[in-house]
Batch of 3 targets.
Target 1
Amino acid sequence: MLKTFSIGGVHPHEHKLSAHQPIVRAEIPTQAVIMLSQHIGAPAKPLVAKGDVVKVGTLIAEPAGFVSAAIHSSVSGTVSKIDTVVDASGYAKPAILINVEGDEWEPSIDRTPTLVKECNLTSEEIIKKIAAAGIVGLGGACFPTQVKLMPPPSFKAECIIINAVECEPYLTADHQLMLEHGEEIMAGVSILMKAVKVNKAFIGIENNKPDAIQSMKKIAGGYAGIEVVALKVRYPQGGEKQLIDAITARQVASGALPISTGAVVQNVATAFAVYQAVQKNKPLVERVVTVTGKSLAHPSNLLARIGTPIGQLIVACGGLPEDTGKIIGGGPMMGKALIGQDVPTTKGSSGILMMNRKESRRGAVQPCIRCSKCVGACPMGLEPYLLSALAEHGDFERMEKERIMDCIECGSCQFTCPANRPLLDYCRLGKAKVGGLIRARQAK
């Protein structure tokens, strides 16, 4: 019997329109806009100034705290300015703008396709290289990878879990990455195992990707301690806590860290980036982005440089469809609407989705009929109808007691609501407000 998580979940239509489309290298932009805050934690601190000349892989911003990440130039050229730019959140944030001149890479980067399987570095040396390369979680959370690989002394890692689920509708970047770069991913998993000093790793893949399961199982045969686990299709199985539950049958307690179960979870694209960083000295300067939509001429998986305007990627796939109602950064469940095509890609840009006017239009909001579908769908065992009502009335203290901070913002509640209630919107609002209250309390 296929494994899956134990609480809640929904089954949205998959719409994997770009499945099996080969990864194509996107054109280099004429100007790269590289955000200083494209990871969880403190924004990076600039190391360059207007007029400085950089190459691909040049360190242009350093971490500004323990939870932060280094940022490297994804292009070669001249820094035109450091300014505020509207990012995917819709807010103006600091960025480094680089005018592109050619494509010259730092000489330390090994760009050959030769597989380097053996890693003779110590755990500490691996983590140091990962930090220096600016690797973050590429599944969307963008948590600095080196921090995850150094759990608090009171916790001990027992295994690595690789998230290759890609349960979000439309997105196919991770699937195609496994088909084309399985060996490098597997070497990256071995490196992650060595970094956290464990001898067991699980790669979770939903069974709607049978070719990836077959390919990765075959490759795993040449690596000690790595097991590919086929999972039942169920959203949001890619959630860290849900994936741990599905593979190990251990639940993360409310308020606890995932490491409390003994598991360290990393995205499959992160494992690939770790391989490139440790074995090829390549910092995180590009990633695979799914560009898709029902009306898009050529749904594709593009290897794009960080800082490329999303409009350029849309043009590469046939241009913006006339019936576009919204451009979504990410997938339809957890992604957010973008204000326009000038938004730059970041380390967390897993997908760009063009939703047509019909599917992007919300239905009229009706009164809650207490059907409890949202309760049954919530993978965290929360009561979304109640949390939504509390947020609407500004009762954020009660929201904290009702465990709003456990919400993973998956959207399962809103997806299943027959009354079209904006449950996810209110939960996001309440979570942000409660998070602010907690931080204020801790600062006293």
Target 2
Amino acid sequence: MKWIIFCLVFCVVLPVRITAADRKPDVLVIIADQWNPRYTSWENKEVRTPHLDQIAKQGMIFDACYTTSPVCMPARVSLLTGLYPHNAGHEIWGNASGYFPAPEDAPMYRDIQRAGLTTAHIGKTHWTAGPLWKEQFKNSGAFYKALGLNHVADIPGPPDSTKGRDAYSQYLWDRGLLEAVAGDLHGRYVKGEFAPRPSVATTEDYHDWFTTGLAVDFIQKQPKDKPMCLVVSLHSPHPPLDAPGKYATMFDPEKLTLPANVPEKYLREGHALDREKTRAMLANYLGKMALVDDCVGRLVEAMKTRGTWDESLTVFTADHGEMMGAHGYLTKGRFYEESVRVPLVMRWPTKIQPARSRAPVQMMDVYPTIVDAVGGELTPGRFAKSLLPIATGQSERLRPIAISEIGDKVPLRMMARDDRYKYWADEEREYLFDVEADPLEQTDLSASPEHHETLNIMREKLLTHLRSTQTNLAAGYKPKVQRLREAEAKKK
């Protein structure tokens, strides 16, 4: 009788204990596009992002997070692969046509899936360009399955053609809005995507709002006893500067402060980047950020309704930044902080204590961090690193420098950033900035005799990094003599 009672207790109680002990966290990753890190509330009080502010207050802010490339495709592929652009199997240094990530080289979602989580990606992917994946897979579903994804809704961004076939284009078509939205966007892209004016779509019909709605629906449909990893990739605040509805007028351009590294000579009346135009662009840009923040709020509420919000790992980041007039430039593709640095915040109650880190990290580190958090096993050969040792206070840093790479001609451009200095080389010359003393990068020290040794040190750090992060297919090889001797030793 006692044995029967023991069995009943064992069979009923033990699974509950295992479930409570082994419950893996839900993971929510929110990726914005072209978000200048200087326009976060923890760096700029003119920004209005209350939902992101709350996440940041409850988590860790990484103040020195850098994209592996300051342009969309290579940055996003780095996240999927855990590799730098210069690694074999990646080797994409800019937005490219005729490229897709081979599933065997892009294991992020498979690693997470193998750990027992349902995997989903909703929103912009931008891993592929061209139809080459169709040569190996019969349809997109087979391709995504090979990547380790259980669910995908690829929303490439606002359509500028009535021939769009994605879910958002279909939504606009069903509502009789596709022709108007596509025509407006086509005109913006042709004439100038930085000309700020409201979208012809309402907020409820705007692409980010639509994408967020798909994500909320996905969260609501997931079984609560099955952990999930959901990546929501929004297109904003990427141009065109077409903030919809109230977001187009949320910020008064005249009340905005332009940073000191927006050159005065470019702010003269009549110049393409005069003071009035630059502030108007910034106002619309901040409006799109506010829209993203409200989308974040919708996702947070969905997670709270699911009941796992305070046990979930939440990550907010971006693929790259946006110059927004700094140093006289717009768009991305440069190694100035506005373009190459990205926001990165991680919230995981009881696991990550609120703090800020100045350690140089890479955006692609999000991948191994997730795998680490869910108790998974990272595919060997990754150069991305889990940030949990920093986020949990076990370590102050993981690497001596962060790097970034971009280029479509020889020599390729490369950047290195350590605790204090930033060095880069382009096709013509080298640059050196003391980012600690000169955060707006207004004084180039590369030609300064007193900084000659620092320049050499940064060159050496970059070279050492490149020598240390090459894919090595010979790693672990044992000569035949060694193998034979080890085999004989085992027999004894």
Target 3
Amino acid sequence: MSQEENTPHEELNRIIESGARLGININQEDALQWLTAIAAREESEVTIDEKAGVFGHRVTMLDFSPAELAHFRKIAEVVGFPDEPGKVETALALSGSAAQSKIQRYPGDADYFERVNIIAPTRKEACDILADMMHEKSTTTIRSSTYQLIEVKFGNYPFPVLSEERVISKGSPISWKPGEIVNKKKDIILADGSHSEISWNQVAQDPGWCKLDWVFADNIHGQLVNASNMLDVTWEAPDGSITPLDGYLDPYFQEVYLEAESIPVFSKLSKHVSSDALDDYVLALEKEIHKYLTRDLNYGKAARRMYNVFRLTGQYEEAAFLRELFDEPATILYQVWSLIRTIDDCFHPGSSINKETMLAQCDRLILTVVSSLEGERETEIVRQLLRLRDILSREHVQEELSPSAEAARAELINIVNNFFYEKLTGHPKIKLYMEDMSKPD
């Protein structure tokens, strides 16, 4: 019997068998409900949760829990862009692990995705409006007692440049630090070694990949989180035509939109998504899977992307297995790993994130590791985290934080990698898929 002919109960039995063999506890009722729901045929791809006031692709909505919605909406007040009637329309969504909160009990970052539709007579004017919007958002959210801006991606390099003795090719995205954004200029080194500068307005007509990154501090819970907003910007011309400013209109397979009021702009833009969007999305994910299985070895990141491929391409048994795998205690180390990076990002002179919050975050990391691990690895990681905490606690920091952070992070990612590799290769179908994805390009 082919996989397409398997019933949810038959697939569930196979998942239970695989889980038992690999020591994974399967929530049978939840897994069966998910398999039944995802296999159902529905007329509309988009599902609306009227009670929570959110919407998204029906497959994505199966994995979303509104439990932390108030928390995410509070951050959204900072990272999101406002509408301007007759000029700018927006639809803000959660993406990544934050949009899969029902299965990923330990999400790392708060990732947002925002559709920004600019109504203007010409493309140039639309790009100028975007440049002004991003500059205003960046300069007005540089710092507060609860957040600070880390960097902004805006524009592409019009020529090759040197950065840390590495050549950055023409067309690569430009990363701007807060001070550079305020001054609207960035000092650069050209490929021939000479010094020059590039201005914010100079790159406005080729905005490219637009993304803003912050660190937020939840002083009530003593927790830090990296928050980002990736923009998909379109220009709506007077004739009603829609043109993506970066040349590509992103699909909506992994977003949960936070406000039902944005359904009209979402509906207008989604009509222009390519009919090949699903195939393109899967292909892009598989390129990343190949990268994380070969060049940049990271089985946890590969597993997250495999889950999205499997659930969107009808490989429900494999998807359901991974869905349960993400709920295992050891996967909490992915959150710990992410939060170490967050501390590293905001620990520097002039930081608006207070030391007490960072210390509380470090204490949470230590407790998390102690509750999740045992033996020599626990001892070593706790040792690294205690060293990290010691550096944080000093009144006058005399050394860089990064070496300690990197040491703890390297230990953590190694443990997570080993955990995922063992579980992934223990499932015959997933093992075959990984072998296929690991073949040379």
